[in-house]
Amino acid sequence: MADNMPMLRKDLAAVARKARLTSAVNDVDSIIAQLLEARESIAAGRDPHAASLILTKLQNPIKEGFETVNNDLKAVSKTQKEFGKALDRSFPITPLPTEYDVMQKHPALINRAIAMHLLREGHFDVSRVFMDEARDMASMITNVTADPDHNGYGGDGDHEDEDAAMATGGSLSDSHEAANFTQVESKNLQDKFQRLYSILQDIKTHNLGPAIEWSRANSDALEERGSNLEFELCKLQFIWLAKSRSHDLSPDDSEGEEDDDDGRNASGFGMSQFSNGMSAAFGYARDNFDRFRERHLAEIERLSAALVFASNIGESPYATVFETATAFEDLAAAFTREFCSLLGLSAESPLYVAATAGTIALPRLIKFIGATRSQRTEWTTASEMAFETPLPASMTYHSIFVCPVSKEQTTRENPPMRLPCGHVLANDSLRNLAKGTKFKCPYCPADGQIRDAQQIYF
Ligand SMILES: [Zn+2]
Predict the structure, then answer these.
(1) pLDDT tens-place string over residues 67-111
(2) Which long-range contacts (CB under 8 A, 24 or more apart) does 261-268 make?
């Protein structure tokens, strides 16, 4: 399949080249021009017979014009069709395994995931409509299951009965959840995400004010998470002010400075524009950095020292600190992550992650299903994949470590320990192996002291 990609790319390039509507547009324009011209001559002429003559004369050219346009469009559609065929050849339709629909039993959870995804993407209206309709559906299902006639379902065998009961039972409890989500949670979440979007928009235009304001208001919660967001934002504000000489010139970028917390934009200092930026940064540091002194003193000293190199930061040892090429983008991503985590949500949309991981796993799933079918065996572990799926590192969560000795997953109370030889055991296993303060590694087997073993943090 992948072997066909270069060929497909070539075909796609040909489509982009050939399937253009330029000639069709030009030909339509020329028809319009002819019609306009005819209208003007009729309007200008006084003789009513002249009008019908003009119209008669117009017939053939217009008819030809339409034919030309049709031919133009035919050529475009032919190229598109050919590419469609090439796509079909390269990606033959494979029937997807659909007999086991795990999702079916949790319609409300699925709806919730979809609604949340829409909220996260900023499609607030779509999300609201979706949730209203999902709620209507849920109440319909609830009514149906409350209907005693419907519960009198039976006769088709025990197994099917059980499945039906599970499905309706599931949707009953799920629908309750969905209703709660729609009415209370969603409005709240929508407000929060609207705030997030407006702050991200401001960060994009280099206006850090609202982001700093939010992080200051939530500074306790952020600190509890060990987040440096507030300091990082203030740091970038400082750097941006210090560099403001170069972007004072562009009206776009200067917005950031207007909205900045620090009002004295140094115009009263009577220096060049360049030192204005530096003194604004200095003033900002004086007013704002004190609160971070305990945690970030070294960094603050570094930033302050950089001001000494005001005239040629670019060639100073501080050049990398003042590099802001991706700084706003990076901070926007960090901001989203922290904002979502304070809401108890992951930074990435779970629906997006699940769908992407599912797509990556799909070829293997199809292969696996094919293999089990041909061997007439069945996939018994329904809630678990029967094969490994190689997912990118960004989709690996909660690194875990299972002790090779005790076969138990390590915990905060029983953390993984790295022995001097490089092997890793759970702390409990290590203590059990040890004789006094010494132990012998069960794998190499090197001798070591317990105090030389180091705890590993994931
Ligand atoms: Zn070892």
Answers:
(1) 999 999 998 999 899 999 988 888 888 777 777 777 778 888 888
(2) 261/209, 261/212, 261/237, 261/287, 261/288, 262/287, 262/288
In the chain, count H helices and then E strands. Answer: 18, 5
Q: What are phi and psi of 122, to 5 degrees?
A: 85, 10
Ligand 1 centre from 419 Cα, in Å? 7
pLDDT at 180 over 70: no
> What distance in angstroms lies between residue 441's CA and the mean position of ligand 1's atoms?
5
Whose tokens are 């901001």? That residue is 335
Give the number of other Cβ atoms within 10 Å of residue 403's Cβ. 19
Task: Assess whether the previous peptide bond of 251 is cis (omega < 30° from 0).
Answer: no
Helix axes 107-120, 350-374, angle to 10 degrees: 140
416-418 vs 424-426, strand pairing mode: antiparallel
Cα–ligand 1 centroid distance for 421 (angstroms): 5
Q: Distance, CA 453 to ligand 1 centroid (Å)?
A: 11
CA dist 326 → 159, 203, 320, 393, 413 (Å): 58, 12, 12, 22, 40
Contact by Cβ (8 Å): 424, 458: no
- How many angstroms does the Cα of residue 393 sit away from the middle of ligand 1? 27
The candidate with the shortest Cα–Cα distance to 335, out of 221, 199, 234, is 199
Distance (Å) from CA 412 to ligand 1 centroid: 23
Of 229, 203, 202, 201, nearest to 217 (Cα)?
Answer: 229
Residue the block writes with tokens 């990076």? 330
Half-sphere exposure of 286 (CA within 13 A, CB side): 9
Residue 145, pLDDT > 70, answer no
Strand-pairing partners, residue 417, are 425, 455
Lowest mean pLDDT among 98-107, 322-331, 401-410: 98-107
Q: Which residue has the tokens 């132990």?
A: 439
Cβ pair 71, 58 in contact under 8 A: no
- What is the distance in A from the centroid of ligand 1 to the CA of 436? 18
- pLDDT beyond 80 at 418: yes
Distance from residue 427's CA to the centre of ligand 1 (Å): 14
